[in-house]
Amino acid sequence: MPEERGECAIGRGVAQTRYIRLGGELILTSSKGEHFLFRVTGLFTADSEILTNDLIVLKNQDVIEFFGMPENRATDLVVQVYNEREVPVIAYKITEMFPGTRPITRSEIIRTYETVFNWRSGMVLAMFAGALAAFFILAWDKATGLSAEERKEIGILKAIGWNTSDILTLKFWEGVVISLTSFLTGLILAYIHVFFLGAPLIVPAIKGWSVVFPDLRPFPQVNPNHIVVILVATVFPLCVKHFNPVVEGSGNRPRYGDEGLRLCRPITGE
User: Fold this and answer.
1) Which of 139, 187, 257, 266 has the most crowded Cβ, counting Cβ within 10 A?
2) CA-to-CA distance for 12 and 14, rounded, in angstroms?
3) CB–CB of 51/12 below 8 Å?
């Protein structure tokens, strides 16, 4: 923290934006066009980055001189309350004593950040809603009928001796293996993208336009409920996509039975 006039302490975001190190100089321009030079004597650590990333701390006299404020006035006051349960009561009393003030508690700051992140997360979800809708449309289209290749495959299997239960079992496990493999692959890639690479594809949408916003470093936290929801929403439609058309088509007379027999018939000298 600054101890003398002309000194300042800055956050990491300010230091990175201005390319300033500890012991460097910070030049600020007031609303009147006057330039003020301060020597950086402190840098806030990464642990307090959510609150101090874009913060500049000056001595009281430097702040008064920079903003041109009267000496008997202040814009912001900090009140430290040791009992957290008393914070709402004290904030209410401050409002009653000074009606023009606006007390802001630490919990309100945290709720504000959570609201902003949730709102921006909704924007990211809206961007991927099209891909999700396309996935369900594809699953529904595949689940409502068999393609020509699938009918040919079922016809060949029935022609070489497979019964309906064998074909249903094959298609069921085929759908389970494909869907589970896709689910686990996507889950692992998403985990690597978020927790190892820092989510470079979604961070710009979550952080917004600010260039001094704190670095977003997600820590690994896996919610089993979310995994179950994603599992049901992705694996179940793919299993239905592989299984449902076969139930409808495997009981019919194979259209390609003769072709299947010709494919399996050994070549003779006739």
Assistant:
1) 139
2) 5
3) no
Map tokens 């910070």 to a residue. Answer: 26
DSSP 225: H
Selecting from 2.40.128, 2.40.40, 3.30.700, 3.10.450, what CATH number does the domain 7-76 have? Answer: 2.40.40
Within 10 angstroms of residue 44's Cβ, the number of other Cβ atoms is: 20
Give the residue from 26, 16, 13 showing the smallest Cα distance to 53. Answer: 13
Q: Where along the chain do the CATH 2.40.40 domains lie?
A: 7-76
Q: Kindly tell me if the per-residue pLDDT of 74 is higher than 90.
A: no
Query: Are the beta carbons of 169 and 179 closer than 8 angstroms?
Result: no
- Residue 209 pLDDT class (50, 70, 90 cuts): low
Q: Six-digit token pair at 197?
A: 């690479």
CA gap 261, 255 in Å, rounded? 12
